[in-house]
Design goal:
alpha+beta; single chain; 12 strands; six-stranded mixed sheet
């Protein structure tokens, strides 16, 4: 017996909200997404979600700022990908040569890097609908961080699809941001092991002496 998994791609046209309606919708000021015309409000984040997000955001901002590579943004930055898709990734990066494209309320187009930190309520959207649409609309790299199963997955753009970037000896290297990588144990240290500081990791990455 085949069990079908319903996705938001099947949403009937009459039930869909447009990206312009989403941007004007008061609740879009809160962490949310418009996925295939469906408004999705984010659930409150868990402690582990917030710790992972803060760590990656701080490290990535340091890496990008010290090399003047562009702009790292937080969880309420909206990207208008299409008429029916406007996403607010947990963390995003825009290259320096594209930063001036930003409008007052949203960015017209994809981020160069989108980072989503999975929660129980967002798993399907992060792994299926958002991954497909991030690839379709030109995101160059996508990182999926899973605090529940303590895993990382990096994906790279390949002709409209996001394909996995294999780990190298357990280390996940960015192809977009040369020299940047993440070790799973930085985000998910074993029980009784301390999490390294952002500064100590920055020194390992060679961006601080």
């Amino acid at each position: 017996m085949t069990i079908g998994v319903r996705t938001l791609f099947e949403t009937p046209s009459k039930a869909r909200m447009s990206a312009d309606e989403y941007i004007d919708f008061p609740l879009s000021a809160h962490k949310s997404d418009l996925i295939e015309g469906v408004f999705m409000m984010a659930s409150p984040a868990s402690y582990r979600h917030e710790v992972a997000q803060s760590f990656i955001s701080a490290l990535l901002t340091l890496f990008v700022d010290l090399q003047a590579l562009g702009q790292v943004l937080g969880a309420n930055a909206a990207f208008r990908l299409s008429e029916e898709n406007a996403f607010q990734p947990d963390i995003s990066f825009i290259r320096a040569d594209r930063v001036d494209l930003a409008e007052d309320v949203y960015f017209p187009g994809p981020p160069d890097l989108a980072v989503e930190i999975i929660s129980p309520s967002s798993r399907q959207y992060d792994e299926v609908e958002k991954r497909i649409n991030y690839g379709r609309y030109g995101v160059r790299e996508y990182w999926l961080i899973d605090p529940i199963y303590e895993t990382l997955h990096f994906f790279s753009q390949a002709e409209g699809e996001l394909l996995p970037i294999p780990a190298e000896q357990g280390v996940y290297h960015s192809r977009l941001l040369k020299g940047f990588y993440l070790r799973p144990e930085w985000l998910f240290p074993g029980e009784g092991s301390p999490r390294p500081s952002v500064l100590s990791v920055a020194r390992e990455l060679g961006i601080l002496e």
